[in-house]
Amino acid sequence: LLNLYVLCLVLQERCENTMDYVKRLRLCIRWFQELELDYAFEQEKLKNAMELNEKHCADLEVSLKEKEVELNLVIHELRKNFSSVQVQLAKEQAEKLAATGSLEKEKEARLAVEKLQAALTEELGKTQGDLQTANQRIQAVNDMYKLLQEYNSSLQLYNSKIQGDLDEAHETIKRGEKERTGIVENIGNLKGQFKALQDQLAASKVSQEDIMKQKDELVNEIVSLKVEIQQVKDDRDRHITEVKNLQAEATKQNDFKGTINELESKCSSQNKELQELQDQLAASERKLQVADLSTFEKMNEFEEQKESIMELKARLEKAELKLIEGEKLRKKLHNTIQELKGNIRVFCRVRPLLTGENSSEEAKTISYPTSLEALGRGIDLMQNGQKHCFTFDKVFVPNASQEDIFVEISQLVQSALDGYKVCIFAYGQTGSGKTYTMMGRPGNPEEKGLIPRCLEQIFQTRQSLRSQGWKYELQVSMLEIYNETIRDLLSTNKEAVRADNGVSPQKYAIKHDASGNTHVVELTVVDVRSSREVSFLLDHAARNRQVSVLKNWKTAMNEQSSRSHFVFTLRITGFNESTEQQVQGVLNLIDLAGSERLSKSGSTGDRLKETQAINKSLSSLGDVIFALAKKEDHVPFRNSKLTYLLQPCLGGDSKTLMFVNITPEPSSTGESLCSLRFAARVNACEIGTAHRQVNNRPLDNRLSLG
């Protein structure tokens, strides 16, 4: 017996050592899995860098070829220009010789007319002086206009600064709605006045342009008159020269007296014409002065109208600012009321019409009410001549951007960092834009979906909260529910991710603990430290999901349709060293598979089973919502894996938001109406108020789905 007892002790010690070795081996296996993910991440980074370098080299080669072609063209053009310049130089040399001969002749004539030219130069100097004073007046007016413009811009900057420093007092919802109505009416009146003043300003600008045209015409007329005067003076000088020559010859020959008298009469007539032209020049200058005065008056009138327009713009901006502040206050109070009521918030998003879909006005089935109560929150659907009206927490029209969507849910994402459980899921028929809303379009930063934007906000906020003593640890898991089977999308074992018969060989059980958290046993959990790591994991999960789900198949409804429910879970653990406070937050982002009618999808075989499984799980979700809305004692969460997984999100201890995505295509009106009715039931559910998870106890390493 003693030997047996000793043997049992030895065996027990060996068993304990073996268990210790098994635990260490598990830790090594997990470390090797994380190391493999890191190596894959680094390999992807190096591959992307090599592709970028190759692309850069190709771009440089193309640019060098383009530069070589451009230089050849420039050389060819320079050669052409050189030949043309040589021809032009030869012509100019010939003209220069001819001009030299004519210059000698002109020198002889210039000596005779220098005395007369001096007198005419004095008159021309006076005229130019008058014209210069007029130009100085015009320049002074232009300088004054520029100074007034600068003063006006400085006033605008000062006004905007004052507007920015103003703080508006918070009011109640009822008073805010009344004031909003008055502001909208005032905006309409101000816009009417602004339009009328703009019309007056346009008319004054037109009249000012006419005056400037008249001024230019008068200046051109003055120039032409000066040219004519110069021509007349030149003719008179020529005739005077002829008269002198004839008078010199008249002493020798008395027969030319009649010719001399005739030339003298011509000279006197040309003097009269010269006097008339000078009178016309003086009249034109008087007209120019009158035009300057009218221009100055128009400029004053223009400045007055501009000041009144700026005043109306300031009033309009102030009214619009009040309207925006009132809308922000309304949203804040509405969200507070919804949190106190414990309702599931519902946002509706309508995707744009795609190429090939009926976009005529007659075929439109969706409209948006413009009343103050339903503005931005209401949607109307026409079916068979009957109008169905719905109101949600927010309605996004087709031209709403991904940034507009994220702004509305950013505060909800912040709640996860504060220690709340948050769930956001997208619901709708196949092809309504659920995956685009949640994931966005890869490779386009402006079209990133909610999941990448939420992660960026969380990592940025985590960095900013370090100065307050907060340290956060983040854990990520991703799974899909396909044919009522849970698949781990982050597993490095490909056999565990997918199988040919559509059933995963690895069994993942959903467990609920006493504190209300839900755990998926044996699910891969990855610690993340940056948004780039999460992006890499998202790409990894998308590849697993795409290969296992689509597999070179498409339905008649949508060739990129998601055939499974995708669940992204981020567990947030925060600890404040100064206050020793610890928070637990969970962010669940879910892309549900699209509902579709079997008669419309054209699914057969295995794809028919997929569609039936999707519709069954969504029908179970509808049963749960119906039971919650009626406040029944029993809620059938266990009818499907999806509802059992979402039990914490729908059971009252989570802040939950649902996106209902619909399509405006007329042929999908029936499915859109069903989605809107389901969303209305969801919005009416009261699930209770969410509680913040704060404690001082150490947390386990399992990932909770809330």
Question: What does this molecule look like?
Answer:
The protein is 62% helix and 13% strand. With 706 residues, the chain is of the alpha/beta class. Strands 1, 5, 6, 7, 8, 11, 12, 13, 14 and 15 form a 10-stranded mixed beta sheet that branches. Strands 2-3-4 form a 3-stranded antiparallel beta sheet, covered by helices on one side. A hairpin with a 4-residue loop joins strand 12 (565-576) and strand 13 (581-591). It is elongated. The model is unreliable at 547-560 and 697-706 (pLDDT under 50). ATP binds at residues 428-435. Keywords: ATP-binding, Coiled coil, Cytoplasm, Cytoskeleton, Microtubule, Motor protein, Nucleotide-binding. It comes from Brassica cretica.
Write the layout of secondary structure elements.
Elements: H1 2-165, H2 173-250, H3 257-341, E1 345-350, E2 366-367, E3 378-383, E4 386-391, E5 394-396, H4 402-417, E6 421-428, H5 434-439, H6 450-464, E7 470-482, E8 485-488, H7 494-497, E9 510-512, E10 518-520, E11 526-528, H8 531-549, E12 565-576, E13 581-591, H9 598-601, H10 606-629, H11 641-645, H12 647-650, E14 655-662, H13 669-683, E15 694-695
Parallel strand pairs: 1-5, 1-14, 6-13, 6-14
Antiparallel strand pairs: 2-3, 3-4, 7-8, 7-11, 7-12, 9-10, 12-13, 13-15
Helix pairs in contact: 1-3, 2-3, 4-6
